[in-house]
Amino acid sequence: MKRLLLLLLLPFFIYSYCFSQSKISYKNNLTIVGKINEPIDITFKTIKSPTVNPFDLHFGATFKDKNGTTLSIPGFYNGDGKYIVRFYSPQSVVWDFETYSSVPELSGKRGSISFKENENPEVLGMVIVDKENPNKFQYANGDPYFALAFELDWLFALDYGIKKGIPKTEKIITEVKNNGFNQVVMNVYAYDVSWEIAENVPKEYFYGKPEYSIFEGNNQNPNFNSLNLDFFNHFDNVIA
Q1: DSSP run (H or E) holding 16
Q2: Which of 110, 113, 146, 235 is surrounded by the most beta carbons within 10 Å?
Q3: Using CA atoms, how far apart are residues 157 and 187, in angstroms rounded to an integer?
Q4: Which residues contact 35 (CB under 8 A, 6 or more apart)?
Q5: pLDDT (tens digit, 9 = 90+) per residue, 26-70?
Q6: Do residues 30 and 24 make contact, with C-beta atoms less than 8 angstroms apart?
Q7: Coil vs helix vs strand at 234
Q8: Are 166 and 235 in contact (CB under 8 A)?
């Protein structure tokens, strides 16, 4: 029986999120300066190994601004005792945060992030519905947005497994952008396809049956208790 695993068909916006993602290691009463519409990863590290599956551990942070807005952001496990909270702001404002967790070592960590204006002209913010013309889209900064998408389902697999950089990914995204497209539609991950594949497709260009899974192990023998962190770190780089 043919197996088909399409986790998600994901659109991302080329012009909206051309960013350099900041990665910060937490220290007591951390103060960070960030840029609006660019995410910041704050890494918290445990000394003692948790008694539960690290992927099941309850962890995140509560963010508050001076206007009283409160956001609860779940964190995620990234291996080697490291837990990450990813946060961004669409406005120039200071956010104070405090972590929460089922493990005391990760709970009660405090700090603040001061977001400043972004000088990168290609970072235009989120794509939202135009309030005055609800049948149209616009960027958060007010610029009009007309979606012109290019489908690259296999983009997740293009440079996976190489030790340095994602050169093929960068090259093809540059070509897509230079030809006027502003959105890419792709799979987060896929395994097997139900349609026939031409016999003359070289093996190195066929991504229908990856040897790896989103879980540890492979598709024939996956470990559903643990994610393949190499894959998700690679996918982060693709999105960035």
Answers
A1: none
A2: 113
A3: 9
A4: 115, 116, 117, 118, 119, 120, 123
A5: 998 899 999 999 999 999 999 887 788 999 999 999 999 999 999
A6: yes
A7: helix
A8: no
Which candidate, 80, 63, 81, 83, places its Cα nearest to that of 72?
Answer: 63
pLDDT tens-digit map of 134-152:
999 999 889 999 999 999 9
Report the predicted TM-score, pTM, of the whole model to 2 decimal places: 0.85
Task: Quote the distance between the C-alpha of residue 82 and its chain's center.
Answer: 17
Nearest Cα to 210, choosing from 237, 228, 225? 228
- Is the separation of the CB atoms in 22 and 40 below 8 Å? yes
| 211 three-class SS | coil
The predicted structure's pLDDT at residue 1: 34
pLDDT of residue 18: 47
How far is it, in rounded angstroms, from Cα 123 to Cα 125? 6
Residues paired with 111 in a beta bridge = 30, 97
CB 37 within 8 A of CB 118: yes
Confidence category of residue 234, pLDDT binned at 50, 70, 90: very high
Structure tokens at 142: 């007010």
For residue 217, how many other CB atoms are within 10 A of its CB?
Answer: 13
Longest dimension (CA), the chain: 62
- Tokens coding 177: 């952008």
Q: Would you say 108 and 93 are in contact if contact means Cβ atoms under 8 Å apart? A: no
Report residue 161 as tokens: 């497994």
Reply yes or no on whether the pLDDT at 125 is more than 70.
yes
DSSP 190: E
